[in-house]
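Folding Problem: From Residues to Backbone Shape
Fields: amino acid sequence; protein backbone structure tokens
RECORD BEGINS BELOW THIS LINE
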Amino acid sequence: MTVHVRDAPTPYPVGMADPNSAEAAVRVLVAEDEAVIRMDLVEMVRELGHDVVGEAFNGQQAVDLARELKPDVAFLDIAMPVRDGLSAAEEIVAEDLCAVIMVTAFSQRDVATRAAQAGAVGYVVKPFTMADLEPAIAVALARWEQVRALRGEVANLGERARAREVVEQAKVLLQRDYKMTEPEAFGWLRRVAMDRRVTLAEVAAEVVSGGLHP
């Protein structure tokens, strides 16, 4: 079995988003050792209008392709040969390569916890449908943007954890008290931070303390 890498086609085939359009296709890497499941996942992602830029059948190939292809999102099966998906996710996230969505046949809480600890920002349980994938991609991209924004503001791991915690608290308050969605809450925090030229964490701290309101 070989690893398949596909260059972005020009022009894009029917049903796939034009990258120059307002809604450009998301670049997706798929890593799954079971060929049938991998083919199904690739087909579903393409039918959603996204671009599958690479396919791998073990965790190490997933890491190597993520470095090479710079996708937006990687779907990683948890149970893969050579290197499991959780280990691959940890390295992909540590190198800030892309958002990671774990794919598994297990839905137990401990598996979800391990996936989150590995840095995954999305989780899909087999058997999945196309209806499961689009929201998973959207949420993963939104959460990854938040993680990267915070990473860019603080270098120290302890400070990063505290900053993320206060931002999460602020988002919860904005959602509860002002009926915002999570993306709306984060977008408001980010706009205020940009306008004031301060960090997200500083704006979030004001919200949490009650000193700042929309």
Observations:
- Residues 119 and 188 are 25 Å apart (CA to CA).
